[in-house]
Every structure is written in structure tokens, then in C-alpha cells.
Amino acid sequence: MKGDDLEITTCDAAHRPEQENNHGRSQCLEKPGDPTTWPRWRKWSIVICVALMYMLANFGTIIIVPAVPTILSHFHVSGNIYQPLIVSIWELGEGVGSFVVGPLSEQYGRNIVYHGGNLLFILCSIAAALSQNISMLVAFRFMTGMAVTSLTLAPSIIGDLFVQEERGTAMAVAIALPLIGPCVAPIVGGFINSTLGWRWTIWIMVIAVGSISLLSLAIFKETYRFKIQQQSRKSTEKSQDRSDGNHKHTSSRNHSSAPRDTILKSIVRPMRLLFSSPVVLVMSLYTALTYGISYLILTTLAEVMQRTYGFGDGPVGITFLGRAIGNIIGLCVYGLVSDRYVRRRRAVEGESKPEHRLPLMVFGTTMLPVGLLLYGWSANKHVHWIVPLIGTGIIGFSMLLTKLPTENYLVDAFDEQGVSASALSANATLCALFGAFFPLAGPSLNHSLGLGWGNSLLAFLSLVFLPLFTVLWLYGEGFRKSGWGYLWRSNTTPNCVEI
């Protein structure tokens, strides 16, 4: 392989094939170097910690929304720029941070990146809560978004802990449940802002994240198998060195190679993986589009419901539950169907493929324009308020059946190579960027085209992807394998990331 390609080195060839060919073997013998064989209680305790941190990250993005007018008044600034910026700057920070979280976790392990990100999150949140001007608040909101690691690490850790046929349910719990956070956050944020003041919408996040971080210190352990194997090799080498009296020689050998090249290649890996396959590129772009649309609806819904239906500041928070209900239904559908379908196709075809995650995504892609048209035109024509809320529920349902299959697909496809976190970093970066910029364009879109045609434009844009996903479902395996040829050094060399 050429020098500028991803670093792929040999590893224990017997590690993954046995896992892939023996569904449920995680219930048999526990192997310390293979997280898929750990006891269920340990795996699910880690999943719960990561899911809670993911939910708090999503919660923290939106909890401040009801307090924005109070913040602007407190700092005596205009809302034309800062009103959307206070919210969207967090998403922009997530986009920047996600780009490096995945590669760093493949370089140094999930454990240190996860705990380091949590500590940085807490420190930046404290600084934001103590802000003395609007610029300081915006800057530390950006840095807090950068410190969010769960966006990338949650699906990667699921891939570390579970075999392919078990990942769908775990992925639904670890990723779908946290997506309910933004729907509940405005209700909680409005109550906290009215009773305790806007700074407490941030302090409550510091307390919650600090508590989960302490719990994680007791529960979380390294899940990245290549890092575990590296630590095991180093421990064995040190034991041999002590017995042979060659400690100095080995230490110089271990530190002789400069890590700079490896780190630099790790940082650019997400974009290389994003453009390595048309399947990955199309899925990531569509996931980012649905994420941006979802945040556009989320940040403009209160204004629409107040202006069109006369909702007050208190009751308007209830309107966010429409998307939450859609998320829950999508969670149930994906959790009940995805793994069962993968196991069924495995029984028929003799193997599990990442493309087996795509049927639900095709269904979700079909539902998104339905939700957008129902929401936009019912609000435009002043139909009863329950109808546009049903539309937001369908949008939330569609988003779940887009995000979960995409992240499951990336984990299934890249886990064997050990670079799933980098693939997820590219996807998370695109989602965060779309989530940051779409809300900025939302008011102009609704003002220029109106709710009906503005949402129709988004619906027609999403429909472009429907025939693409249908083709990828039927023929995606060929695109995937031909697109990732550069990842393989040879047909006989096991492919693992060089740590």
C-alpha cells in the first residue's frame, strides 16, 4: 500500500471471524481482549452511561432556547444575529470536535477520549455560565460543543461491544433515546429560566454531566479491541524485559518511532473514508440533510405555533412532544425489526451484510416528505394545531429511521478494519454542520416562500435520495467493496488499524 494510504497492519486473524460466524458466542467464554464476550451487565452498563451522556449533549443544545430572549436583554444586544447563533454555535462546535474525536479514539483508545471530553465539557460549561458578555457566552458554547464526544463514540462503542446481529437494539437505546432530549429540553429550559434565571439552564447541565462522569469513572473501561491488544502486548513485553534485563533496550525501541505521521493520517482519515465509497457519501449526506431539517423545525416550531395558533410561552413547550413521540415510535420499530431482519437474511444468505440495514432507511426516506408536506401546508392553511404536530412526529420518525441505519451501517462496514469511529466522525461532522446552518436559513425560508412552499422545497430535496437508496439497497455491496479497495494491503493480510 502506498505511503499516503491508511495505515493497515496485521492483527490476530482469528479474532473476528469466530465472532462473525458464531452469533451469540458472547454468552460463552469471556475473553478480556474481546469486549463482545464481556458479561451482558457490563456491556449494558457502559451503553447506559454513554446513552445518558449523549442525551445530555443533545439536551444542552436546546435547553437554552427559551432563555435566549432573557440573555439578549441581559447583555443589551440585538437578537438578529445572536438569537440563532447562541443555539447553532453549539452545533458548529460539535462539527469541529467530531472530526477529531473518532481518529483520536482509534489512536489513544475510547476511554481517555471519552473522559477527557467530559472534563472539557464541564469546564467550558462553567465558563459559559459565568459569562460576562455575549461574546464570551457564544465562544464557550462553541467550545462546549467541541467537547461532546458521545456523538461519535456512542455508535463506535456499540460496535466494540456487540456482534453485528445484536447491534440494532443496542444502537436504538444508545442513540435514539438521547434524541428525545431536544424535544423535552425546551420545556425544562423554560421552567428553569422563569424560576431560577438563564444561567441555571447551564448550571443544571454542569451538575448532570458531572454526575454521569463520576458514574462513568466507576463503570467505563476501554472497549477498543486494538487498544486492549496493544496494552496487553506492552504488558507482556515489560514482563519479559524485566525477566531478561533488557528494559532500556525495549524502551528505546518502543519510543523510537515518531507518532506525528500516524496522528496526521488519523486526522484526515474521516474525509478519506467519507469519499471512499458512493454508499458512505450518499448516506452521510442524506443523514446530514435530515438532521438539518429536524433542527430547522425544532428551532422555528415555537414561533410558528405562537404566531399561527396563539400558543403562550408555557403551552408552546408541549408542541415539541410531537417529534418526541415520533422518535419513540421510530425507536420501537428499529429496535424490533432491524436485528431480526439481519438474522433472517443471515440465515438465508449465510452471512450478515451492512446493506441489510437499508430497507428501514428506504422506508424512512419515503416518510420524510410526507411529514414535511403535512406540517408545512397544514400550518400554512391554519388547519387544527394537532395536524402540523402530527407532521413533526412523522419527521421525527423518519429521522430515526435515517440516523440509526446509517450509523449501524458504518459500524457494520468498518468495524473489522477498526476505523468505524473515523467513518462516524465524518458523518457526525456533516450532521453538525447542517444542524448549525439550517436553523440560520429557516426564518428566511419561511418568510420568502411561506410555510407551505418552504417545507415543500425541503420535501422535494429529500425525495431525490429515495431512488438512490433503493439502488444502494439492491446493489450497494458491489459499490461498497469496489469503493474500499484501498483499505486492503493484500487479499491475505488481515486489516486492522495501526494504533
What report would you give on this structure?
The protein is mostly helical. It folds into two domains: 191 residues, MFS general substrate transporter like domains (Growth Hormone, Chain: A), CATH 1.20.1250.20; 216 residues, Growth Hormone, Chain: A (Up-down Bundle), CATH 1.20.1250. It contains 19 helices and two strands. A two-stranded antiparallel sheet has the order 1-2. Helix 2 crosses helix 9 and helix 8 crosses helix 17. It is globular, with a radius of gyration of 23 Å. The N terminus and C terminus are likely disordered.
The low-pLDDT segments are 1-28, 247-261, 484-499
Describe the global form: globular
**Structural class computed from helices and strand pairing:** mainly alpha
Provide a count of the helices.
19
CATH architecture of the largest domain: Up-down Bundle
Distance between the termini: 17 Å
CATH class of the largest domain: Mainly Alpha
Task: Please give the radius of gyration in angstroms.
Answer: 23 Å
Strand sequence of the main sheet, in spatial order? 1-2
- The averaged pLDDT comes out at 78
**Which fold name is given in CATH as the topology of the largest domain?**
Growth Hormone, Chain: A
| Residue share in β-strands | under 5%
CATH homology superfamily name of the largest domain: MFS general substrate transporter like domains
Helical content, roughly?
Answer: over 70%
What is the succession of H and E elements?
EHHHHHHHHHHHHHHHHHHHE
